[in-house]
Specification:
Layout: H1 3-12, E1 16-21, E2 29-35, E3 40-45, H2 53-65, E4 74-77, E5 81-85, H3 94-108, E6 121-123, E7 126-128, H4 138-156, H5 162-165, H6 168-178, E8 188-190, E9 199-201, E10 207-209, E11 215-217, H7 224-229, H8 234-243, H9 250-269, H10 274-288
InterPro entries: Fructo-/Ketosamine-3-kinase (IPR016477), Kinase-like_dom_sf (IPR011009)
GO molecular function: kinase activity
Family: Belongs to the fructosamine kinase family.
């Protein structure tokens, strides 16, 4: 048995009798473990030089402490592993998506003075710089701590072609304009990486959020991946709006938040997402007139 599993056994004061591969993200090694007492847990292992386990545990803990939405209980943690409650999967119906929409809106009602977070974390395998600053507007934060680092890393990797470099100033103007126009500009607690694969459903149909990339940001940013990749029903969005309606202009602003995730996908997966990214940038500039 690998040393990491011996460490897990010691932390749980039990022997592991079965280990199987589990589905779970592209960053850590995910396993389902069974102990000699019959208990089953979900185990995430990250033995890289810059492990994301601590940031993930912190995010799960803060989401859970909000009292708004459920996350798996943390059973044991170390720098390189995280043992979580095992969620037996259930089936879905319309009411389950309604519950998720309502609970997410309630999560977003948790507010803070400043944008960002008091620590960095990870969005997939990419470092997410949270850079909390009391004097920064939401638009300034999103440009400096979200779009800026992604574009910087793309440029370093040779994945930011000249035609997109030439559009950067116009893109900045669009972001500053669109992200400064709302009346409800206040920091909300965000999951940060909310796509359908990061929502589990237990046998009672209750939603459980996993793999967070939390920060204090504008609530609309948390809806961007649901729109980009789908998998969320209309009932989810209706329930969200019943709890806290989105403001007019959401459809235009959410494209900026989608852009952040597309840039991150180019950084992680390469040029396969570059055509979609280029199309979105040009569409934003064209529709907003570059200012």
């Amino acid at each position: 048995m690998e040393p990491i599993f011996l460490q897990v056994e010691q932390s749980l004061s039990s022997s592991i009798v079965d280990i199987s591969q589990a589905f779970g993200g592209s960053v850590s090694d995910s396993r389902l473990i069974t102990l000699d007492n019959g208990q089953r847990f979900f185990l995430k292992i990250d033995q890289s030089t810059e492990p994301s386990i601590g940031a993930e545990a912190d995010g799960l803990r803060r989401l859970r402490e909000s009292g708004s939405i459920r996350t798996p209980k943390i059973i044991s943690e170390d720098k390189h592993y995280l043992v979580l409650e095992y969620i037996s999967p259930g089936s879905l119906d319309r009411a389950d998506f309604k519950a998720l929409g309502t609970q997410l809106a309630r999560l977003h009602k948790n507010s803070h003075q400043y944008w960002g977070l008091d620590r960095n974390n990870f969005i997939g395998s990419t470092l997410q710089i949270n850079d909390q600053c009391r004097d920064r507007t939401w638009a300034q934060f999103f440009l400096k701590a979200r779009l800026g680092p992604q574009i910087y890393w793309l440029r370093k990797r040779g994945l930011w072609p000249a035609d997109l470099q030439s559009l950067e100033d116009q893109l900045v103007s669009v972001v500053e304009s669109l992200l400064s126009e709302q009346s409800d500009l206040r920091p909300s607690l965000l999951h940060g990486d909310l796509w359908s694969g990061n929502v589990l459903w237990d046998k009672q149909g209750s939603p459980i959020l996993i793999d967070p990339a939390i920060y204090w940001g504008h609530r609309e940013a948390d809806l961007s991946l649901a729109i980009l990749f789908g998998g969320f029903s209309d009932d989810f969005f209706r329930a969200y709006d019943e709890e806290w309606p989105r403001e007019p202009g959401f459809e235009a602003r959410v494209q900026i938040y989608i852009l952040y995730h597309l840039l991150n996908h180019v950084n992680i997966f390469g040029s396969a997402y570059l055509t979609q990214t280029r199309k979105l940038i040009k569409s934003l500039i064209s529709e907003q007139g570059g200012h």
